[in-house]
Design goal:
Elements: E1 2-6, H1 10-21, E2 25-30, H2 33-39, E3 45-48, H3 54-57, E4 67-70, H4 76-88, E5 94-97, H5 101-110, E6 114-116, H6 123-131, E7 135-140, E8 145-151, H7 161-164, H8 166-170, E9 173-184, E10 190-199, E11 211-217, H9 218-225, H10 229-235
Parallel strand pairs: 1-2, 1-4, 2-3, 4-5, 5-6
Antiparallel strand pairs: 7-8, 8-11, 9-10, 9-11
Protein name: Potassium channel family protein
Domain RCK N-terminal: 1-116
Keywords: Ion channel, Ion transport, Transport
């Protein structure tokens, strides 16, 4: 996977380093030479650039980049300008950081694909969400172990937990299964609600919309999920 991360503040720099460590190619951009120099040994590529300068930004390899993430958090105006510019230049998948509720509404109007809230979402969670196709959320216990929520990979639909031999072959533990159901509210609107099954029954047949809550070593989770986000782009 190839990423462009704009803004090397706490969130952006942490995400850029984690995605690099996972084997991805990351171009990290900031207008501070001090930050660019500081992270140049920890991120694939670091570039000093004004992300609101259309002439400079247009030279970036958009055709080869899977995801652009605008992580600017200190300057709302620069965030919006950079987001709009990268949108106009044809970023394949554009994610931007929301600073407040009004800012979020403007980003939605621009048409970003996804919005980040670093105050409540960590770089660890986003690195897993971006790196692996099916991961919905994750909680990193330490450098080696995590608990994740992941959609059932297509190749496992219709099989039981027992048939998959997840404990024996992958050294992972499925804590529970979350089933997403559609219900009608009192005012007639449709909404999705999560039904948690409790301790996972090894004989339950997995369905396409099921969400697995998995505990285990990060490398084992990576191997089990086995579908990198880039495959999603190839399928489109």
């Amino acid at each position: 996977m190839k990423y462009i991360i704009v803004g090397l503040g706490n969130f952006g720099s942490s995400l850029a380093q984690k995605l690099t460590a996972l084997g991805n190619e990351v171009i990290a951009i900031d207008d501070s030479m001090e930050k660019v120099e500081h992270f140049k040994e920890k991120v694939t590529h670091t570039i000093r650039m004004d992300a609101t300068d259309e002439l400079a930004v247009s030279d970036l390899p958009f055709d080869e980049t899977d995801i652009v993430l605008i992580a600017i958090g200190e300057d709302q105006g620069s965030n919006l300008m950079a987001t709009a510019l990268f949108k106009n230049l044809g970023a394949k998948r554009l994610i931007s950081r929301a600073i407040n509720p009004l800012h979020k509404k403007v980003l939605e109007a621009i048409g970003v694909d996804e919005i980040v809230h670093p105050e409540s979402e960590t770089a660890e969670r986003w690195s897993n969400k971006l790196h692996l196709k099916n991961v919905i959320d994750s909680f990193e216990l330490n450098d080696d172990f995590s608990i994740i929520e992941a959609q059932v990979p297509k190749k496992y639909v219709g099989k039981t937990i027992k048939e998959l031999k997840i404990r024996e072959e992958h050294d992972l533990l499925i804590l529970t299964i979350i089933q997403r159901e559609e219900k009608t509210t009192q005012i007639g609107e449709k909404e999705e609600v999560d039904k948690i099954e409790g301790i996972a029954d090894p004989n339950v047949e997995l369905e396409e919309k099921d969400i697995l809550v998995i505990f285990g070593k990060n490398s084992s989770i990576d191997s089990f999920i086995g579908e990198k986000s880039s495959e999603e782009n190839q399928d489109d």
